[in-house]
Amino acid sequence: MKKILVLAFCFLSVLSIHAQENYKIIFDKSEYDFGKINEEKGKVEAIFYFTNLGKVPVKIEDVNASCGCTATDYTKDDVAPNKSGFVKATFDPAYRTGPFSKTILVRTNSFPVMLTLSIKGDVIAKPKGPEDWYPTISGQTRFSTNHFSFGEVTNNTTDTASVKWYNNSDKTISITSIETTPYVKFTPSSMQVKPHEAITIMATLDGTKVGDLGFLFDQGHMFTTDTSFAEKLIYVSATINQYFPKLSKKDSIAAPRIHFEKITHSWGEITEGDIVGTEFKFTNTGKKNLEILKTKTSCGCTASNPSKSILKPGESATINVSFNSKNREGEETKTVTVITNDPYHSNSTLTVTSIVKRKN
Fold it and tell me: Which strand (E) or helix (H) includes residue 19?
């Protein structure tokens, strides 16, 4: 038995040596150092050349980079003995400042089967300018953003947000007027912007004037003397929450409380055009009347309404939710926000899902 194992080992060794003699590629280098790279100059390339030193044609089966920032190309055809091929790595330095080191794994039908190449370098960040500080283009001007996002605001307070507005032209541009909703006031730091300068536009949202609860999204119109695009659209978003004064321990115990039996529902697979529905049951587990102040859906294809808007302690009710799948396809997730006078769960989110299959 021992002799058989020895013979088998010797046989495999001979085969391995024979394979190495017949299939063998050698690269001119295994590492490429780009040194310092300027980010603004874009992609750079490294080419690794190899030679077939074996006795039969060899082929590169596949090449994979360790990072999506590195693209690869390589000789696709068989490479005859004593002929050469290449593996190319293209590195994109955009938004990747600082030192880097990436590997490229090469799979062949030669010996060795797997080879590792590498690239390295140091990306020097491009100088920042107006296109970086003010990325939103509007005619001859730029905004840091034209969206004033206030986040969460209670309906008894005001909040502020600001953006920068930059004049990218060689002439002074003026703001002539700003039209917006009654609950938002815009205050520019100046009504005129000199060439290649910026001003700050401050927005103040008055939660007492909104008259609504939940998420809101509105737009305003800023009129200017920009000859290429005079009217600028600006956007406002916020989530308006009900204000609750700080409760004493006694009031906390007596407060209304909402409790849902479930907060998610899946209809599974449905056919495009189907209208499906479900209900979410909830109970007032507190000691004061629970008021449903508002229900708000995430899109017009979803409808909801509570069976009762005021619940005494211990009472239950349902919110019926329906979904119209017309002109929909694929995975669908919709939400219903329920706003109540529960000081601890004033906003409850119900989620419905489905997979809409195309009608045959």
Answer: helix 2-22
Fold of 130-241: Immunoglobulin-like (2.60.40)
Instruction: Give the Cα separation of 250 and 272 in Å (integer).
Output: 52
- Give pTM, 2 decimals: 0.66
Residues contacting 99, CB < 8 A, separation 6+: 120, 121, 122, 123
CATH architecture of the domain covering 249-357: Sandwich (2.60)
Cα distances (angstroms) measured from residue 137 to each of 167, 197, 275, 327: 10, 15, 42, 33
What dihedral angle (degrees, nearest 10) is formed by the CA atoms of 181, 184, 189, 195? Answer: -40
Report the pLDDT averaged over residues 301-325: 90
SS3 content of the chain, % helix, strand, coil (to 5): 10, 55, 35
Joined tokens for residue 266: 């899946």
Domain spans, the chain? 23-124, 130-241, 249-357
DSSP 79: B
Among residues 349, 351, 329, the alpha carbon closest in space to that of 340 is found at: 349
Q: What is 23-124's CATH superfamily?
A: Immunoglobulins (2.60.40.10)
Residue type, 171: K
Parallel, antiparallel or unpaired: strands 290-297 and 330-340: antiparallel
**Phi and psi of 22, rounded to 5°?**
-85, -35
Backbone angles phi, psi at 148, to 5 degrees: -90, 105
Q: How confident is the model over 168-206, as pLDDT tens digits?
A: 999 999 999 999 999 999 999 999 999 999 999 999 999
CA dihedral 298, 299, 303, 308 (to 10 degrees): 30
